[in-house]
Design goal:
The protein has helices at about 1-20, 25-45, 60-85, 90-115, 125-145, 155-175, 180-205, 225-235, 240-269. By secondary structure, the chain is mainly alpha-helical. The protein is flat, with a radius of gyration of 20 Å.
Length: about 270
C-alpha cells in the first residue's frame, strides 16, 4: 500500500496545485510554484529509496520525527506559496522569491531526511533528544515574549536561546554514547529550532494580542493602522531564522552523510 500510496498522493497534490494555480495570471510565477512543489515531492520520494537519504531509520522515533518534520515543512511550503501567489510583484516573486524559497525548503527537507535515514544510524534516543531540545528552546523563547512583551524586534535573544538548546542537547548526550550521535543531535537543533521560532513569530504576529506587537510604524495615521502595519513588520527581522535554518540544514546534511558513510564502512568490515 505504501509503495502505491505515496506516488499516488504526490500526483494528487500536484493535480490540486495545478488546479489552484490556474488563477495565477503570470505564467512564470505559476509554473515556478508548480515546479517548487514537484521538486519537494521528488526529494521526499527519494528519501524512501535506499541511499543517503533513505529509507527512514528503524526506530519509531525516527519515523515520527521524519513524518512530523515533513508535515511541518509542507505547511510552511503551503504558506509561502500562497503568499508568493498573492503578494508582491509577480515578476519579482518568479525571479527571486521562488528560487530562494526553493533552496530554503529543499535544504530543510534534505537535512531532515539525512538525519533520520537508516544509513545515518542515529539512535532513536538521540533523535528524540534533538527534537525535544528544539521544541524546548523555541518554547522558552516564546514564553519569554509573553512574559516580557512585546515581541523583540531583535533576533539576538532567539539566537542565544537556540544556542543554549544546542548546548543542552550536547550535554545530555555527552558520555552516554557515540560522540557522532551527540553532534548530529545538536546540529538538528540548528535546523528545527529556527524554523519553530519563525513559525511562532508568524502566528504571534497574526493572531497574538496587541500587547505582543511592538510599535514599528509610528508614522501610520491611526492606532489601528499602526498595529496592522507593525504585525507585518515584526516578521521581517525573523527572516534571518530561515537563513540560519538553511545553514543548519546544510551542515547537518554534510555531517550526516560523512558519518553515515563511516558507519556503513564499519558495518561492512
Amino acid at each position: 500500500m505504501r509503495a502505491v500510496g505515496y506516488p499516488l498522493s504526490a500526483v494528487a497534490v500536484l493535480a490540486v496545485v495545478l488546479r489552484w494555480s490556474a488563477g495565477i495570471a503570470y505564467g512564470p510565477l505559476r509554473w515556478g510554484l508548480v515546479g517548487l512543489i514537484a521538486l519537494l515531492h521528488v526529494v521526499a520520494l527519494w528519501g524512501r529509496r535506499p541511499g543517503p537519504l533513505g529509507p527512514v531509520g528503524d526506530s519509531m522515533t525516527a519515523r515520527a520525527v521524519r513524518a512530523g518534520g515533513c508535515l511541518f515543512i509542507a505547511a510552511m511550503t503551503a504558506a509561502f506559496v500562497a503568499r508568493m501567489a498573492t503578494h508582491g510583484p509577480p515578476d519579482e516573486q518568479a525571479s527571486f522569491g521562488v528560487p530562494v524559497f526553493a533552496v530554503f525548503l529543499t535544504s530543510y527537507l534534505v537535512g531532515l531526511l539525512a538525519f533520520t535515514a537508516r544509513r545515518t544510524a542515529v539512535p532513536g534516543r538521540a533523535i528524540a533528544i534533538g527534537a525535544a531540545g528544539s521544541l524546548a528552546a523555541a518554547g522558552v523563547w516564546v514564553a519569554g515574549q509573553f512574559l516580557f512583551p512585546p515581541v523583540s524586534a531583535n533576533v539576538g535573544g532567539a539566537i542565544f536561546t537556540l544556542g543554549c538548546g544546542v548546548a543542552a542537547v550536547t550535554l545530555a548526550l555527552a558520555g552516554r554514547g557515540r560522540p557522532r550521535d551527540a553532534l548530529l543531535s545538536a546540529l538538528s537543533v540548528g535546523l528545527l529550532g529556527p524554523l519553530l521560532v519563525f513559525a511562532s513569530v508568524v502566528l504571534m504576529s497574526r493572531y497574538g494580542p496587541a500587547r505582543l506587537i511592538p510599535e514599528l510604524v509610528p508614522a501610520a495615521l491611526t492606532p489601528a493602522d499602526r498595529l496592522a502595519n507593525s504585525r507585518i513588520e515584526i516578521q521581517d527581522p525573523y527572516v534571518a531564522m530561515l537563513f540560519l535554518a538553511c545553514l543548519g540544514a546544510v551542515v547537518l546534511t554534510v555531517a550526516s552523510l560523512i558519518t553515515g558513510r563511516a558507519e556503513a564502512g564499519k558495518v561492512a568490515r
